[in-house]
Amino acid sequence: MADAEDVRRLALALPHVEEIDSEGFDFRVGGKGFVWSYPERQPGRPRVIRTDIAVLYVGDEAEKQALLLGEPERFFTTPAYDGLPLVMLRLAQVDVYRLEELVTDAWRMRAPESLVGDLDDAPAAEPR
C-alpha cells in the first residue's frame, strides 16, 4: 500500500523535479505537471484536495483506457478529465514498486527530451 509520502519520495528522486506549493502534492518537470493530488469537486461544495488519490499523466487515450479497463480497482476518471491523458490512482490499492513505475513513466512523458537522458544517471529512490 502506497501513500502521499511515497509519491513525494519517488517524484523527488527523479531529476529536475520541482515541487509546487499546494495543499497536497504537486510535481513538475520542465514546467509540466506529471503527478499531483486529486482536486475532488462535487457540485455545490468546495473543492477537496485528496492526498490518498494521485492524478497521473499517462500520455494518450489508449494508455488511459488500458489502465481504466485493466485495473478498475486502482484507476478511475471523472467527466472533468474526459479527453485528457490523465488518470486517478487510488494509492491504497498499489504497492510502492508499481507506484514507482507509474510516477517514472509519467515523468518520462512530460520531461523535455533534453532531460530524459538524465534519468539514467539519477540515483534510484530508496525502498521503503
From TrEMBL:
Q: Look up the domain of life of the source.
A: Bacteria
What the entry lists under Pfam families is as follows: YjbR
Q: Name one GO molecular function term.
A: DNA binding
Identify the keywords attached in UniProt to this record, alphabetized.
DNA-binding
Q: What is this protein called?
A: MmcQ/YjbR family DNA-binding protein
